[in-house]
Design goal:
With 116 residues, the chain is α+β, with helices and mostly antiparallel strands. It is built from 3 helices and 3 strands; from the N terminus they run βββααα. Strands 1-2-3 form a 3-stranded antiparallel beta sheet, covered by helices on one side. Helix 1 packs across helix 2.
Length: 116
């Protein structure tokens, strides 16, 4: 069973959420959380919109957050789109070494012709 109470800490000038936890033996444990003002505003607005108590909205938000932590992130599979890079039509791609040799020979001949 959870009981919540929103208090204002005068020393820190921040709003704190006091959470009282009762277990089966009715031992009370108090936990204080510091919640940012913008989150308190959103929680109060949600409580007002739904008509639900503030503590119910806080508990739902915490539960939803905990459920998201436990779920593994679903990563979309990587897809690589293939593009044609082109190749000499006379080349047989099964003989890649012959192709590399021919292209290298053509490049050497081109560089030699530039030195004339």
């Amino acid at each position: 069973m959870f009981l919540t109470r929103l208090t204002e800490s005068f020393s820190l000038k921040k709003r704190c959420l006091d959470i009282l936890i009762f277990d089966v033996m009715m031992i009370c444990m108090r936990t204080t959380l510091t919640i940012d003002d913008d989150l308190v505003r959103e929680l109060r607005e949600k409580a007002h919109q739904t008509g639900a108590p503030f503590k119910e909205i806080v508990n739902k938000a915490i539960r939803a957050g905990l459920e998201q932590i436990d779920k593994p992130k679903q990563i979309k599979p990587y897809k690589c789109k293939a593009y044609s890079l082109g190749y000499p039509p006379s080349a047989d791609l099964n003989h890649a070494l012959n192709l590399a040799d021919r292209l290298e020979s053509e490049e050497i001949a081109r560089k030699l012709s530039l030195r004339k």
